[in-house]
Amino acid sequence: PENAIMASRGLVLRATSLLLCLLMTPGLAWRGLALVGRAARPRTSRLAASARRTWAIAEDGRWVSSAAATARGANDVGWSGLSREARASSDASSVTDGDGARLAAAARETAAAAASPAAEAARARPVGDFTPGFHDQEEVGVHEVSDAAEARRVAALLCARDELIHACDTEVADLDLGRSPLGQGRVLCITVYSGPDLDVGSGPGKALFVDTTEPGVLEAFKPWLERESALKVWHNYGFDRHVLYNHGVDVVGFGGDTMHMARLWDASRLAGYSLAALTEELVGRAKVSMKEIFGEPKLRKDGTPGKIIELPPLDSLQASPLTRPDWVQYAVYDAKGTWLLYRELEARLSRMEWLRTRSLFDFYTEYWRPFGELLTDMERAGVMVDVRSKLPLAQTRAQADRDAAELTFRKWAARYTEAAWYMNVGSGTQVQTLLFGGATRRNSAEVLPLRRTFKLERAAFEELHVARLRATGHAHGAEAGAAAREAAARAAAATAAAAKM
Is residue 13 predicted with pLDDT exceeding 50? Predict the structure, then answer.
C-alpha cells in the first residue's frame, strides 16, 4: 500500500510539473491540458478520456488520480500510454532552468494537498458528467498487425477460415467528403472482426487492427481481401471497396452490407441508417464520435481555446503514441459493431416472410446482395458525360428554372403583402416571418414577430422593382428603370420619416 501511495503521489508531482511548464508558454494552455490528460491514460482505452473532459475536470479543480481511476475499473494507470522516448522527453521538459525552484515548490504544495484527507474524499467522489468517452463503451480486445511478416501469417489464417463471417472497416485520410471516394483517399488501417471463435495467436474473439501505413502490410492482406470464398460484410460497402481499389486491391467475397440490410428491414427509419444509430438501437451499443474523442478547440489569436472543435490529421492520431490506443479502439469498435449488427439484422430478416417458405433474408442473399456488388462495379466504371458541350446548357436551363420558380413565389407572396415581392427568398428568417409571423413556437411559449424590417440595397430594390413591373406588364425598358428609381426614392423617404417618429 505504501508503494501504491508513493506511486500515486509521484504521478501527481510529474503531471503538475509538466502542466505548469506547458502553461507558461503562450498559446499552449489547451495543448498542455490535453497532453497531461492523454499521458495519464491507461493502456486499455476503457477509461480513456477525451481532451475536452480533461479541460472540464481542470476547470472544476478535480483530477482523477490513479487511485480513483483504479476504483472505476482501470488496471494500468499512469504513464504507460507513453513510449519510453516520450516519457523521457516529458520528464526532461517538466522543469526549466529559470523556473525550477518555483515549479518544485508548486509540485510540493500539490503533493501535500493530494495527500490530505479532503483530497482523498474528493477523489472518491465521481468526477461528474462530462463528454462520454471509451469508459462508456465495451472495450474490444485487439490483435495489432504492424509488419509484413505478421500480416502474411494472419492473412493465411483468415484464408483457412472461410466458414466465418468477417466484418471489415477502413479508416481513411486525405479525403474530400464532397467527392466520390474513387481516385482519392489514403487507407490508414483495416479492421476485421470474425466473431468469438477466431484466434490468430493472442486469444479468441479479438478484432484485428491492420496498420496499412507500414510497408508491405496491405500487399500481404491483398490475397485474403480478393478471396471470393471469404465472405466479408461491411457498412457502406461501396466506400470501402472504392478506397481499397485506389490502392490496387479489388475486394471480392461480398458477404453483405448492413446499411442495405437495414433498409430492407425498415425503409422508413427517421433515425437514419448510420452505423452509430443502428448499433445503438438494435445491438444496444453506443458509439462515440471521432470529434468527441479526439477533437480539440481551435485556438484564438490570443492563444486561448475557442468554441470551434477541430480534428487533428487522422494519420497523426494513428502514429502518435499519445492517441494511438484510443485510435485503435475507435477503429476496431466499428468492425465489431458491424459484425453484431449483421447477426441481428440476419435474425430479424429471417423472421420476416417473403414467400410461403422463405424469408426476407433469403431475398437479400439471392437478389439484393449481388445487386449491391454490381452497384459498386457500376460506380467504378462511371458514365461518360460530354461536359464541354452539355454542362453549360444544363447550367443555363437550371438557372432559368430557378428564376421561374422564384418569380412564381414572389407573385404568390405579393398577393398577401406588397413588401414580400422585395424579400430575399433565400433568407430563412424572412420566409419564417412571411409564413409564421405571429405564431407560437411549438417547443416554447415564444411568439414569433408579426413583422420585421430588413435592409435592402438600392440597386437590389431597383432590380426587383423592374422585374415586378415587367411581370405585371406595367412598364418596359427605360420606363421600368425610371419607375424603379422613383419607387426607391419613395421607399427611402418613407423609411426616413418612420425613423423620425
Answer: no
